[in-house]
Amino acid sequence: MSNVVTENRVTTAAGGQDAQQMRKLVIASVLGNALEWYDFFLYGTAAALVFGPLFFPVGGDPLQGTLLAFSGFAVGFLARPLGGIVFGHIGDRYSRKMTLIMTLTLMGATTFVIGLLPVYAQIGIWAPLSLIILRFLQGVASGGEWGGGVLMLSENAPASRRGYYTAWSQMGVSGGFVLSAFAFYLVQKLPEEDFMSWGWRVPFLLSIVIFLVGVYIRKNIRESKAFTQAKPEEAHEKIPLLVIIREHPKALLQAIALRLPENGASYIFFTFSVVYAKHIGISTGEIISAVTLAMLVEFFSILFWGALSDRIGLKPVYYIGVIGLLVMAFPFFWLLATGTYGWIMLAMLLGLPFCHGAMIGTQPCIMSDLFPVRVRYSGLALGHEVGSIFSGGLGPMLAVALLMEFNASWPVSLLLMVYALLAWIALRSLPNHNKEAQE
Question: In this structure, is the dihedral angle defined by the CA atoms of residues 44, 107, 22 and 251, taken in order, positive or negative?
């Protein structure tokens, strides 16, 4: 670990650029990441609202169709490690920039096609099969996206402000969610019949515009300086994945564990909460409104957490998020169950900008410092995306299954606590490498 930290210190300092270039990278990272995650989050919202009855119309219990829709959601997460391996390989051996354009193109195309799909009543079993295939391709694209966007900032930022600058990339995640939630909030205002027949398609079809803007942005960014400086000095790894498994297994496990509470909490808070609200008779519009406002607050709070990590270190800030999740796991659902908008809003503000924000704001630095430059894209992407399978992928599906089995929220709260405890163990095994990297 100490060797990796030393290398990170050298390559980060060497990769520092002037303020103007950093501003360009920040804008490209935030906007590109926001557009990418807008596409990805659309599926999660649609799975909670419309995909069950339209693509998985089974049985008399609407939760069964929703469970199957979330199974398709999980397929995307299963595909994400594949995307991390493939695009991480390209990013480590050839070009970070080229990889980011490829992932955005794949995401934009698949999302647009989802908006054109016939439903089960029109083509039968081919409807859910087509949806799942497209969701799989979405997952492949997403699996290669995050690591590249993070590294463009992490490998170029001044060593003393890496937490602040890399937090900007995470603002794109929150921004993408806000855009997708706002789009569905607007189309939900349509009459029920119009919303179910064509209204839900509009946010997906808008991805063609998002794709064009995103590609333009990413074509105008520079290659990571740390990457270009390292390439002549280091032999290319033919298969970076094997290097990760052989030389950095502990770092990979640490990255996976750190991902669990951040990703699990986010998808349970803003995806499963919609299902839970419908189940207990609360207006889904109020939940979506509260989530959107909370994510808008998180959009800005992420910068605070990133800047704070530059002052006190990555681990203390990540601990704040993990401990906060342990404390909030049960009260979150108690507040939702009141049905009062003020309490629902409080639950979302504590869960997202505070607990989740502290983790997602520091996650880029704390994970990227685990791996050396020559395999950093692959290691970062693989750890991030394998962790996403067991949290964001299986989390909402497990939550729905637990709700069906126990008709209560307490098993879901326990699931969140398990995620947090595993991250706690990983944090205890990490040195204060952020502080070391700044010295």
Answer: positive
Measure the CA–CA gap between 59 and 235, rounded to whole angstroms: 57
CATH number for the domain spanning 62: value is 1.20.1250.20
Q: Distance of CA 265 to CAs 4, 149, 261, 279, 352, Å?
A: 29, 22, 6, 19, 8
Q: Which domain holds residue 396?
A: 2-438
pLDDT in tens, 249-283: 999 999 999 999 999 998 899 788 988 988 898 88
Total domains present in the chain: 1
pTM of the model: 0.80
Q: Rounded CA gap, 90 and 99, in Å?
A: 7
Q: Say how many Å lie between the first and final Cα of the chain, rounded.
A: 16
309 Cβ neighbours under 8 A, 6+ residues apart = 163, 167, 316, 317, 361, 362, 365, 434
Q: What SS3 state is found at 309? A: helix
Which tens digits make up the pLDDT trace of 181-204? 888 888 988 998 899 899 999 999
Residue showing tokens 């339209």: 54
